[in-house]
């Protein structure tokens, strides 16, 4: 038994991936659930519009809600329509609309940011009859309306990372990828050819999940299908590139699954799907801003629920495009290095050891 225990420890010491999982994963979970697991939104970004905007902003600053309402902008020359557009563009959590005749101000709440909307309702309740609240885009604060657009991205992430990486690793084990190295194909051609079926299947899954979410849970689709498809295609290139990259650094399916888990776990927990980004401390929140699922969720919720156009969603689309270029480029570079056959040392024109090594291989 002692010999078996020593043997397992030695094998574990040589398996750096498993050691990394044993060390990194607990630290990651501790960090996430210790700092990021917070459903309470303490600060609500607010815009005040209308003729009495400045006076109302001063009253809010002296009210019990001052600690929660973070007034970022005061715009006396704008009205209710401008406030709705600002909320649709996801620039603020709520908007206060004032009137010239001294009527009670109207508070517009973005219902797609579920936790912020719940916190806003609590704040508005403290103000009593001083305001008239209205929840936009998700009037009943349905959780499914917020989750379905995010789950679309999560399903695409799962397909792109785990299934793609495992499929390519299996081909590497079978020797198929090494055979492609001697064919007149560029690495980018090989990768595009390999991921094309996964891309089409993932696109089909995206359409099916979207339609089922609308039919089963009553989730609306109020925006442009073209913008949704464009963002989905760019996002797919990102996650498929991650899958290819994982396959190039993995020797078998087990290693690919381990690496995919390390990629998937932060995307699930730190992209704002479960815990709101606004409630995370800055030291953890920045990780969420580095994850592609964060930006696809912003686009999906914006298009489906807020009827946001490309003029409002250009930033997450641009970020996803940059990620697609970087990740896919790294995957192509790493894939080229992994399938390039290594020449024996000394093999070449006039190399003394070339004939000897070839003869040794022949024997």
Per DSSP E runs of 2 or more residues, the count of β-strands stands at 5
Structural class: alpha/beta
- Tertiary shape: elongated
Q: Tell me the strand percentage band.
A: 5-15%
Number of helices: 14
Helical percent range? 55-70%
Mean pLDDT: 82
Give the distance, in angstroms, between the N- and C-terminal Cα atoms: 42 Å
Biggest sheet record? 5 strands, mixed
Order of strands across the main sheet:
2-1-3-4-5
The H-and-E topology, N to C, reads as HHEHEHEEHEHHHHHHHHH
> Can you tell me the residue ranges where pLDDT is under 50 for at least 5 consecutive residues?
342-363
Please identify the oligomeric state.
single chain
CA-atom Rg in angstroms: 27 Å
In a nutshell, what does this entry contain?
This protein has 363 residues and is of the alpha/beta class. It has helices at 2-14, 16-36, 53-61, 80-88, 114-127, 143-174, 176-180, 187-217, 225-248, 253-270, 282-288, 292-306, 310-339, 352-362; strands at 44-49, 69-75, 94-97, 106-110, 132-136. Strand 4, helix 5 (114-127) and strand 5 (132-136) form a beta-alpha-beta unit.
